[in-house]
Amino acid sequence: MAFDRIRNLRPVKRHRSDVYILASLVTFALTVLIVRGMLRITGYPRLGINTVHIAHVIWGGLGLFAATILLLALANRWALMAGAVLSGAGMGLFIDEVGKFITLNNNYFTPAAAPIIYALFLVTVLVYLQVRRTPGQDQRGEMYRAFEQMSAVLDHEISSLDITELYIRLRQIQLATSDESVRKLATAMLVFVETEAPICVEPRQGNTQKILTSLQGWGRRVFTERRLRVFLLCVLIASGVYAVIDMALLTFLAVSPESFATKITRFLRSLVSPGELRSLRDGVWFSIRAVLEGGVGISILLGAVFFGLHREMRGINIAIYALIIDLTAVSLLVFYQDQFKAIIGTVLQYIVLATALFYRRFYERPAELDVMAAISEKRKT
Fold first, then answer.
1. Is residue 27 part of a domain?
2. How confident is the model over 13-29, as pLDDT tens digits?
3. What separation, in Å, do the N-terminal and C-terminal C-alpha atoms of the chain show?
4. If we measure between CA atoms, which residue out of 174, 193, 175, 196 comes closest to residue 184?
């Protein structure tokens, strides 16, 4: 009996949960970027009078509370998306002021704030990747998801793809379950769907979706396999060279004495942000960054070499692992030293990583297929 209770407490993945988490993740990132950018442009204004200051952390808390109430009170499917957007915006507004809560003097500009924000973003990305995985064939979880899809049947707002997925899910439950009551329930749900004959309403493309579809079509026409290969090779070389040069520059400034104030040294120091110059005095953290960033740059260049020599799979894998290390470890250190440089670099690195993953998924062929093609070509000759 106790075992059954524990088993019934196991978490069940919600239907389309990856879509809701992605919406929350994107809203969270955009909120932080927009707030920090607008505050810097406007000179960090204060909203309030006299001794009263209405910080945007309050609006973040209200957004989180509104998302919670919305999800607890309403069962409509649209409430899930609204709650996801509200939670992402609320968390972005809240975490943006984390610097005030980890310092004794309520310092919004403390260097530790940006790494904390980015670390939370990384954790959310990991959660999204985990949720995005296809759930196992658990009959209890499948029934949960079937019940969720039934709400769309009741609202007569279900697409042909969703209705087909619901049919397949209920049929599989009928065949796989050993519980007679569950089988009868799945059968009754199938009869209800067939009797109700819901109208299949295909999702309409909004302006944003139309733009994305147009961009995808343009991308397929412009970035053919060969062009994408050349583009990926160029961006890998550029990323690797930049990482190596950036680390070499910082290393030169770290070992050169401050009294060595030649024109070249002064020019090089002008290329580095004040936060990074201050970090050069901390030998331990600088050494960690030097090893990581230098290793990442060399690894990306090594991946580019393999990729250019038509050993694509090995080259892409090396580059992907190096980019992941850069985005998880190196970026945290850079955020501590210069958040705006880190934001630009992180966005660019995510673009490079997405390009590499896209190429590996859609254009890279397994080595076995290349061998088979070579054998087939040899037989023809």
1. yes
2. 888 888 899 899 989 98
3. 71
4. 174
Nearest alpha-carbon partner for 24 in 97, 116, 119, 89: 89
Whole-angstrom distance, CA of residue 32 vs CA of residue 49: 25
Place of tokens 């990747």: 129
Whether residue 14 is contained in a domain is answered as yes
Instruction: Answer yes or no: do 107 and 20 share one domain.
Output: yes
Q: What angle do CA 177, 178, 180 make, to 5 degrees?
A: 95
CA 12 to chain centre: 22
Domain count for the chain: 3
Residue 82 lies in a domain: yes
Residues 62 and 168 in one domain: no
Same domain, 228 and 143: no
Query: Does one domain contain both 268 and 349?
Result: yes
Residue type present at position 353: L
Q: Answer whether residue 381 shows pLDDT above 60.
A: no
**Is 80 exceeded by the pLDDT of residue 257?**
no
**179 and 235 share one domain:** no
99 with 161, same domain?
Answer: no
User: Which residue range forms the structural domain that includes residue 187?
Assistant: 139-196
Q: Helix or strand or coil: residue 343?
A: helix
User: pLDDT-based confidence at 93, cuts 50/70/90?
Assistant: very high
Whether residue 230 is found in the same domain as residue 359:
yes
At a CB cut-off of 8 Å and minimum separation 6, what does 356 contact? 232, 236, 316, 319, 320, 323
63 to each of 19, 30, 34, 39, how far by Cα in Å?
20, 15, 16, 20
CB burial of residue 92 (10 Å; 0-12, 13-18, 19+): buried
**pTM of the predicted model as reported, rounded to 2 decimal places:** 0.71
